[in-house]
Design brief:
Elements lengths: L3 H7 L15 E2 L22 E6 L5 E6 L6 E5 L2 H18 L1
Parallel strand pairs: 1-4
Antiparallel strand pairs: 2-3, 3-4
Bound molecules: zinc ion.
Length: about 100
Amino acid sequence: MISQEILENEGRFEVDVKYRMPLQGSYSTGLWYCPECGYNNMREHSPRTIIGFAEDQHGRNVRIHRCGKCFELYYHHTTKDVYDMFLIYKEEVNNAEN
Ligand SMILES: [Zn+2]
């Protein structure tokens, strides 16, 4: 069983200031699922729907998504693995544009 301590530490890592934004949208209880329309945003090659990262009221990092189907914003707790995946995605996008 994963301890509460591990869960809490997972949400605490440094996020580049250019990817930080205010907490917005509604909380998704279903990982990659949009709470507004139920769409599974894993289908959108997951990092593509992440628009940035914010801190919740406990200082834990959350990822903010724009749903690939209904375009509503929502957020979910995140691990550093997802943040790293997001950075790789952003690098690929930047390389493609240049
Ligand atoms: Zn949606």
